[in-house]
Sequence to fold (292 residues):
Amino acid sequence: MSGPEQLSLLQPGYDGWCQRWERRIPTWRRTRDGGFDPALHRLRLIPEAPAKRFTVEHHYTASWPVVRFAYGLQRVDQSPRPGDPDGGRLVGVIALGVPMNPAVLSGVFPDLVPVRQSLELNRMVLLDSVESNGESWACSRALAHAAGQGIEGIVAHADPVARVRHTASGPLLVSPGHIGHVYGHGQGFDYLGRTRPRRLTVLPDGTVLNDRTASKIRRGEGGRAAAERRLAALGAEPRRPDEAGAAWLPRALDQIGATTLHHGGCHRYARSIGPGRSRVRLAPTTLPRPRA
Fold:
């Protein structure tokens, strides 16, 4: 084992490397290698459907959050593949959207209206074919566009904890974790420390059953059906019509071999954008940026 594959196991998120994805498999590139040609790429707003399809196919979470702006990085000298937006092959997606809890935004930017004036950078996934420094170029343009739409503050998170998918041939590393080098060093975000530690329910495919979704199942709330189908697809017996979700969920998780992960918290970054950025107040104390 050598090159990016070896680094993804030994030094995830090291300052000299940038992360890429291809069908949920992570690789790494040296930032000093460069090679990204802006003349061959463009970043533009794209419809949510192709952005979601691309992200679910390639990002390790295999999920799509609530998004306000979806940006596609396109290679203009290559023809679009089926499902790609017109104008070039889709090789990356950046999404700015709504966190699960509005306090993620208001706690950082107390003077801005969440969602209307502040957003979370909640997805950034570039294919392995994108050369080094492509993420910085794309991120800069996404933030410039958002600033033109009245957004003044951006929060971003980097998850340093590895994820493993269990397969018939053994465990497969689906995310080695990262420290958010592109935010702190490439885009000038302030580092705000780590989010609170928590327990995560990790499914065999390496994805997480979040607390809100689990609560919908337990309480029989709307939106639970998709989550129940997801667990059934992983091998859980479907819930009986007369069975309460609170009784079914623990059994389903045990049947599929879900595990509990004690997570120490994600790295948290934030920055103000736009012409008035110097006047935007950042509530938390800025800390030294993390290294590998």
In short: Confidence is low (pLDDT under 50) at residues 1-14.
